[in-house]
Amino acid sequence: MSHNECTIREPIEPQEASPMKPEMSVRGIDLAKRVFHAVGMDERGKIVLRKRLSRHDLRPFLAKLPPVRIGMAACGGAHYWARRFREHGHEVKLMAPQFVKPYVKSNKNDRRDAEAIAEAVTRPTRRFVPIKDVDQQDIQALHRVRERLIGERTALINEVHGLMHAYGIVMPKGVAKFRQAVVEKLESAKDKLTALSQEMCWKLVEEFAALEKQLASDQEKLDALATTHPACQRLMTIPGLGPLTATALVAAVSDASAFKNGRQFAAWLGLVPRQHSTGGKERLLGISKRGDSSLRKLLVHGARTTLRWVGRQTDRRSQWMRHLVERRGKNRTAVAVANKNARIVWALLTSHQDYQLTTGEGQLLRASVASVRMEYGKVTKEEMPKLLMAMVLEKSMEESCRTMPGGSELMT
């Protein structure tokens, strides 16, 4: 066909644009005090919405949206907003900020932070931070205030030590000895102090007494919470765990089932070796010291207290601790016992049982696991805690039926 000839084609009818808009499935929110940035993505990860919101407009805006997955960094106010967003049916996920940082493209700003949060929350292997309720935040706030008061008391004692030493007065070390000797030292050394220095030192002593009173009040509140909270009562059955450690763990751990096993829980507390392996060669270093340092400190100090009387005990746990002290020393043994206690804490929080040492360390759990496998055959790790709990309930019901009048007839 020559170039002069032309073919007649049928006219192409214009196609109407689809009225459907891309559905938003994920939303990332960069939190702040007054100005918030939100980014919405569809199922393919394409950005379909960017919005800048004030604090007053954030909640009404999300209340109008259909339920979506909302991702936020676990920072100040994140748990509050997570509880508010859940009230409107949204699925809220909190992430540690260090896991969001790799997704920030180019220079940092609020819009890119929100985009990085929206992208990070879609990763299938992402580990999320459990959302705390108000009661947990109250307990944690009480612990934070107590730690601050302890720091102020230590600084005050050191200041009194230095000021009195400048006038030739030496005070004994330690809070308990300082509490007993400071008044007596000031009264017996009046000749060494001027009127101004005496007034200054007595004001510091009054400040010390006020701090002691506040600390005693906080301690009473924590003791009362520990005696009434069922999870704290279970944790206090573990040797080396008192009211302080039990309440601190309950406040920090919202959902223990978020950890697959006790080792992950111990790793979250920084009580496992830090690894730096390459080329197929494993290299284990000291403990990683990740997570909350105050929780790790409480567990290690609690483990140190159990080492004092371990020589007078004959159970398997005490024998293991004695052998470990002989081989590795007291410091490493304290960390090892803290690691073991952390794993036991996870087991008690997930199984809702008290700590039992009568059958030997680990024998009760191994016997229960063996019973479940004999009854149900091959069981996955996710199903094992539920089946263990069901078996415990069944045994307790059988025991109650045997003890009640006419219970044997009901069992038959």
What attributes does this structure have?
4 domains, single chain, alpha/beta, five-stranded mixed β-sheet, two-stranded antiparallel ribbon, 7 strands, disordered C terminus
Give the integer mean of the pLDDT values: 82
Q: Assign the structural class, choosing from mainly alpha, mainly beta, alpha/beta, alpha+beta, or little secondary structure.
A: alpha/beta
State Rg.
30 Å
When the domains are counted, the total is 4
Number of strands: 7
Question: Order of strands across the widest beta sheet?
Answer: 3-2-1-4-5
- Helix tally equals 16
Poorly predicted spans: 11-20, 358-364, 408-412
Shape: globular
User: Largest sheet at a glance?
Assistant: 5 strands, mixed
**N-to-C CA distance:** 98 Å
Describe the structure.
The protein is α/β, with parallel strands linked by helices and 412 residues long. It folds into four domains: 26-120, ATPase, nucleotide binding domain (Nucleotidyltransferase, domain 5); 134-228; 239-275 and 283-361, no CATH class; 375-412. It has helices at residues 55-64, 78-86, 97-100, 110-120, 134-166, 175-188, 195-228, 230-235, 243-252, 262-268, 293-308, 316-328, 330-351, 363-376, 384-403, 407-411, and strands spanning 26-30, 35-41, 47-54, 69-73, 91-95, 273-275, 284-287. Strands 3-2-1-4-5 form a five-stranded mixed β-sheet, sandwiched between helices. Helix 7 crosses helix 9 and helix 9 packs antiparallel against helix 11 (293-308). The termini are far apart.
What's a concise summary of this model?
By secondary structure, the chain is α/β, with parallel strands linked by helices. It has 16 helices and seven strands. The strands form two sheets. It has a five-stranded mixed β-sheet with strand order 3-2-1-4-5, with helices on both faces.
